[in-house]
Amino acid sequence: MPATRPLPRLDRENRDFWTGGELDELRIARCADCAGFVHPPRPVCRHCLSENVAPYAVSGEGVIDSFTINYQAWHPAMEVPYVIARVALDDAPGVILTTNIVDCAVEDVTIGDRVRVVFEQQDDVYIPLFQRCT
């Protein structure tokens, strides 16, 4: 089956974010000097400009701070409708991921829902998606 999502080009900075799901880990770049999180991943901390940045496994839990429902099938294999959401991660202050909410009806999603990461593997990439906590 063809990929239904465009896959990122893996590089030195983003590889841990996109492949951490193989170990069931959501990895966000974190500065070892100031403990600030850097996303999207970059080689230099956006808070203190340190180059001491490395991937850090976070819990993968968070809250939906906004969302929209998409009804346009951008690829023949995509099922619509689906939810595109912004998820604020609990233990990575300032990091908000744009993602999809999966495994529930689109009409059941609300702002403030608690969510946890799940991964969809395509080739060597593990796409972080989120499902509502029960």
Structural key phrases:
134 residues, mainly beta, five-stranded mixed barrel, three-stranded antiparallel β-sheet, 1 helix, 8 strands, 4% helix, 42% strand, globular
What does this structure look like?
It is a single chain. Helices cover 4% and strands 42% of the residues. The chain is mostly beta strands and 134 residues long. The chain has one domain. The longest helix has 5 residues, at 15-19. The termini are far apart.
> Span from first to last CA?
31 Å
Tell me the major beta sheet.
5 strands, mixed, barrel
Mean pLDDT: 94
Shape: globular
Strand order of the largest sheet: 4-5-6-8-7
Q: What is the count of distinct domains? A: 1
Helix/strand/pairing category: mainly beta
Please work out how many helical segments DSSP would assign: 1
Please state the CA-atom Rg, rounded to the nearest Å: 15 Å
Share in β-strands? 35-45%
Short summary:
The chain is mostly beta strands. The chain contains 1 helix and 8 strands.
